[in-house]
């Protein structure tokens, strides 16, 4: 499966279909809590944790908390 827009190839049709959303801007997965939409279910699930108040990553330097490991790690690097 090859993307006509950018030429990227995929072994699985489901991956090709998911990729197409990058070009179309389609965001079929909507948060029932706030209505924000996402192109991937994993992004919706990550977003939904923000409504649950789940911010398990707390910076020991400044006390700021994060629900995303990636954002927490990026924040820690900013402290040096």
UniProtKB/TrEMBL annotation:
Keywords: Metal-binding, Nucleus, Repeat, Transcription, Transcription regulation, Zinc, Zinc-finger. InterPro entries: Znf_C2H2_sf, Znf_C2H2_type. Residues 1-28, 29-56, 57-80 form the C2H2-type domain. The keyword Ligase does not apply. It is found in: Nucleus. It comes from the Eukaryota. PROSITE patterns: ZINC_FINGER_C2H2_1 (PS00028), ZINC_FINGER_C2H2_2 (PS50157). The keyword Metal-binding applies. One of its GO terms (cellular component) is nucleus. GO terms for molecular function: DNA-binding transcription factor activity, RNA polymerase II-specific; RNA polymerase II cis-regulatory region sequence-specific DNA binding; zinc ion binding. Belongs to the krueppel C2H2-type zinc-finger protein family. PANTHER family: FI01424P, ZINC FINGER AND SCAN DOMAIN-CONTAINING. This is ZN180 protein. It comes from Loxia curvirostra (Red crossbill).
């Amino acid at each position: 499966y090859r993307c006509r827009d950018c030429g990227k190839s995929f072994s699985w049709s489901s991956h090709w279909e998911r990729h197409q959303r990058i070009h179309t801007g389609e965001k079929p997965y909507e948060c029932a809590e706030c209505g924000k939409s996402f192109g991937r279910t994993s992004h919706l699930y990550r977003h939904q944790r923000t409504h649950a108040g789940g911010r398990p990553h707390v910076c020991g330097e400044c006390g700021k908390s994060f629900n995303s490991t990636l954002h927490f790690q990026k924040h820690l690097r900013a402290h040096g």
